Queue: 3 jobs
Job 1
Amino acid sequence: MDYKFSTASKFCMKCKHVFNELEFFMSALANVAADDSASQTVSEDEKNSNAGLSDYQRVDSCLECWEKDIEKEIKYFSWWQMQKAPKKKLPALKDLEFLWQLFYQARTILENIDTDADIENDKIAEAENFAYVSALGLMRMRQLKLASYENEDESEFLVFTQTGTKNRLKVKDPKINAETLSKLEEKLEKLSAQRFDTQ
Ligand SMILES: [Zn+2]
């Protein structure tokens, strides 16, 4: 699986309200393999742009429609609050939309290691690095809060809680040095710029 990044939908996928610059809205991942109801409101274009997430599909909703989903107890795999970005490109580590996409794509790769026999070790290492730097970025942006450290199989893990939710997210500390970290940050800038090249 390659990393694919899309800009958030320009409008609420439920009521078609067009998001204003800096408006808060919700992004959620619906497991389309398990639940078809969420996918019906998503266009083919949106499906293609999110193809990297395989069984998961991103649904962007305005806060009003989100409240209605909660009342209807619609189940999502994961969700987070977004803010419609200003028109100019932000640095990757300050771009919430980009950081969340990177974080979940890296985690999806790591969660599927057992079932993906062909995955190469350097892909795994890259996904661990991406999950880690995006989590640190999200922590700086107050989306995640560091709750604890855990040791397991001779590795150290950071346990985060997601702000405003009870979600606990465990991220391996890949113990990278400063040089690797700055190379990773360069790579992040390139990945994040992809979204603006394709528009
Ligand atoms: Zn709406």
Job 2
Amino acid sequence: MTQQSDDTAAYTPPAVWKWDKQNGGKFASINRPIAGPTHEQDLPVGKHPLQLYSLATPNGVKVTIMLEELLALGHSGAEYDAWLIRIGDGNQFGSGFVAANPNSKIPALVDHGTASPTRVFESGAILLYLAEKFAAFLPADHAKRTECLNWLFWQMGSAPYLGGGFGHFYAYAPFKMEYPIDRFSMEVKRQLDVLDRHLAENQYMAGDDYSIADMAIWPWYGNLIAGNLYGDSATFLDTQSYTHVVRWQQEIWQRPAVKRGRKVNRLAGKPSDQLHERHDASDFDLRTEDKLNPEG
Ligand SMILES: N[C@@H](CCC(=O)N[C@@H](CS)C(=O)NCC(=O)O)C(=O)O
């Protein structure tokens, strides 16, 4: 391993990059430069048509919020089984998961309610799939639908700068480097300003109605604003100064479906907020970690 003591040390890339398994960082043990399964492992299938394989990261939470919102709206067909994928243990590289998502990332959804099972991967595609399946949280009017999709795709393109860029170098890299932290802080603050200016004039991302665009953006930028991501990053980025994003974040946080969706497949935080697997609506009352493991 070539360890730099600080970011001023020079690095000359070799002619051909080689995989150094010891290159450090929080996710070094699961990162690898090749795709495909590492082991045989079928995915479990529960009683509902919709089977979700996920973890409560911001990308995972988008989908559980959407499913809980659909159920709150009375779409009983949105009942789902949520299975836990422990990405730190490499569950995403099991053969069953790779068949559901060849990209080996949570979330992945399999709909057994179609003539043959439909796999859906990429959180944005899952939100769109569910919105179309249930005709909900996506405006029917073409212009409004386009605006909703503008913001959905904005999130899919922007969040990797927040997570893979800023979050990685601010919180997870093996040592602090000024250049990437500067570069990605500047970009994330620019993104927050984009949101702030838009939310100054719109209640929700797609206008007057709450939609899948809000569900995609809130788990990332709402959690960042609320100080739930990457240590002291909310202070570092002065997120409270984006007052319209703060208003929007708080409004969405009041939604019961958001509070429920955030708990599903969660492995960290208060035990009462962790519902490792969800197979029934009653699980929120009966099967959170404080109930299943009262001794901790
Ligand atoms: N663009 C993808 C990103 C999904 C993603 O990055 N998932 C992460 C957790 S948030 C993951 O599964 N990481 C495991 C790995 O990289 O091996 C989406 O929105 O679904």
Job 3
Amino acid sequence: MKIKYLSIVALFCMAFGCSQKRENAFSGEWMDLSYDFSEQTIYWVESDGFKKETVAEGQSEKGFYYSAYKFCTPEHGGTHLDAPRHFADGRQTVDEIPLTNLIGAAVKIDVSAKTSANRDYQISVEDITAWEINHGAIPEAGIVLFQTGYGKFWGDRRQYMGTDGTADQKHFPGLGKEAAQWLIANRKVKAVGIDTASIDFGQSQTFDTHVALMTQNVSAFENVANLEKLPAKGANVVALPMKIKGGSGAPLRIVAFIPN
Ligand SMILES: [Zn+2]
């Protein structure tokens, strides 16, 4: 009888976790890594921006306050996700990305010392291995976020993009193709993110890093906010895009949880 009771308790704990664990599951700090969406949000110069129109706003005739709006946005602007389909035919669209690829242990690699003097800097394998010497190996199947420091320019298009002009005048740092390939081959990363407008550097013409990641069904998070506040390791990231059927990308609400 006692054995039976204990096995029931064990089964319950396996299914739901012990009560102490449940109480402490959200003991820690949540951080918002997303920018808000408004007419001021930075999009590619050659694309439309975010548009919000008022459908209703104010006191209704029946005595209650009522507001409703409608919005229109390109997939790739503001804090957003690039689905593998963005640069790889036949790979996952936004709605097809498994939740497990959008949630997980995350590390932050700060390369701002390299990028402050070089707008066209491409993050290298050496930047990653140097980080690992100080912090240990990147967890397998984790999420890697790159802090270039360009987030401090958010809100100032010219500073953030390196230009007010056309596509081939953009100057901001990105993740090098070799580093992306190294992360996939050696650390099996499931997603990467960056505090610039694109995972490829601004001067890229062939988007090699996008192609390298997305042919392997690895998603990218772009225009990620507040990376300077994120610790180098120990965070868990939850990055949930709007679930657009067949989408190549989508607005993204990305948050980090740092347990106590
Ligand atoms: Zn994008």
